[in-house]
Design goal:
The structure is a homodimer. Chain A is an alpha/beta fold. Chain A is built from 8 helices and 11 strands. In chain A, helix 6 links the parallel strand 6 and strand 7. The longest helix of chain A has 16 residues. Chains A and B meet through helix 3, helix 4, helix 5, strand 8 and strand 9 of A and helix 3, helix 4, helix 5, strand 8 and strand 9 of B.
Chain lengths: 261, 261
């Protein structure tokens, strides 16, 4: 790497799934000030639970909007994954040095990684070999305190920018407990817990007598080991789970080769 | 297991992402006749590319519709993942013996597994410890020939029903090449190829002069090994990739533990 390249200001792309006006993305943007040239490309409306959805049936809109002073900010009519694709192809005309997503209002530990638009945006970047991190705070409130999230987001982004070569598709799922920054014990690298929602639909009738259903559920942790994100968060650590997009179940593959091929 | 339980007819839940009226789901339903009691719960409109999206911001509708003779069929206003959740909680009031998804009109090999509503429905079932299989045919056409897909779907479902104990969260991603059944060489258990789309947005102007963007892209395979789904399909095998929902990158976890904790 040339010396000139080394001192070039890193390009930081920020997105989220709560929408461009959410307090969480404002907090994350503020936390990056001074670390590089920041761009925000985020959905124009809440996109929680969108998973890795992309928009193929209709076209996308992209509008320059007013964001934080000095930060080029765009709102996009698509999903978080669409935002990453559009940002790379249409806004940046190339890959940023890092793509960060969040700070999500609410947890994305354990199985939530699968449903989360925040994490899918990060995973999309990593597919493109852009180092990425998704940040989530365990507080759904619009008035959540992002102080600790900002401290750890900055710390982790600085770490990733210095350690990009750890993996070609580096992607981290970071969750921050909803406690005062002073109470947080530090960072814990974890695995994804097997914890999930036990769904129950709330069936109602509309004014015309037709049934409709609201998705509800209770979160349950089935994973009692101490190296999971759920354990770390319960014990006031910031959890960091490195994630990947190769879904191959290699152990089962070996078993099946003997039986099915 | 009691004898009574052994002879109980298996419950087969079918869903897809192309919608309840797609030829692919009709073909899959027909292929299951005689294997068990079949229920269809599928989206009321195309939901391709929806990934693991769930509907949390508004309620869901579920309507009984006319399907194949003798098969209870429902159309649902939600995503493929919503369909699985609703089917288990509201239609079946319990878990089926297997959940199958498809036959998708178009490939879901390699990175497509992440974007695919077909595969997300199957993965959702596996999270609930329901053995599941997603089927996709490498032919987008509404008039695609599902003959080979039906033969292999039946074969693989029979195998899974007999081998449920192979994994607590058994989930298979099955792709069928778009060739005559006689040309297919058999089944190949594979890993997910690192192959992806090189995106390019087609920028246009609407009649009012405002820009909009269509997602387009070219598929590129970066994985030259012979144990991938892309290789198998190119060589006229039915590809079977066992997939999992634990996204933890364990190798990177070990590296990070030394550097970040």
């Amino acid at each position: 790497m040339s010396k000139a390249k080394k001192i070039k200001e890193p390009i930081i792309l920020i997105t989220n799934d709560d929408g461009v006006t959410a307090p969480g993305i404002k907090a994350l943007t503020e936390a990056m000030i001074g670390l590089g040239k920041v761009y925000v490309v985020a959905p124009d409306k809440p996109q929680s639970g969108m998973g890795h959805a992309i928009t193929i049936g209709h076209p996308l809109r992209l509008s320059k909007v007013h964001g934080i002073e000095g930060v080029e900010t765009y709102s996009c009519s698509g999903t978080p994954v669409d935002c990453v694709k559009l940002a790379v192809d249409v806004v940046l005309h190339g890959k940023p040095d890092i793509c960060i997503s969040g700070v999500n209002h609410g947890a994305n530990h354990s199985i939530n990684v699968i449903y989360s638009g925040t994490m899918s945006a990060a995973l999309e970047a990593s597919i493109e070999s852009i180092p990425s991190v998704g940040f989530s705070l365990l507080d759904y409130s619009i008035e959540a305190d992002f102080t600790a999230a900002k401290i750890y987001a900055r710390k982790i982004v600085e770490f990733v920018l210095k350690n990009k070569n750890l993996d070609k598709h580096l992607c981290l799922n970071v969750n921050i407990p909803a406690v005062d920054a002073k109470i947080i014990k530090g960072i814990k690298v974890c695995k994804q817990a097997y914890a999930k929602y036990e769904e129950k639909f709330d069936a109602r009738k509309d004014p015309h007598g037709r049934r409709y259903f609201w998705l509800t559920g209770e979160f349950k942790n089935f994973d009692k080991s101490k190296d999971t994100d759920v354990w770390a968060l319960k014990n006031n650590y910031v959890s960091v789970v490195p994630v990947q997009f190769d879904l191959t179940h290699y152990e089962l593959k070996t078993k099946l080769e003997k039986k099915l091929s």
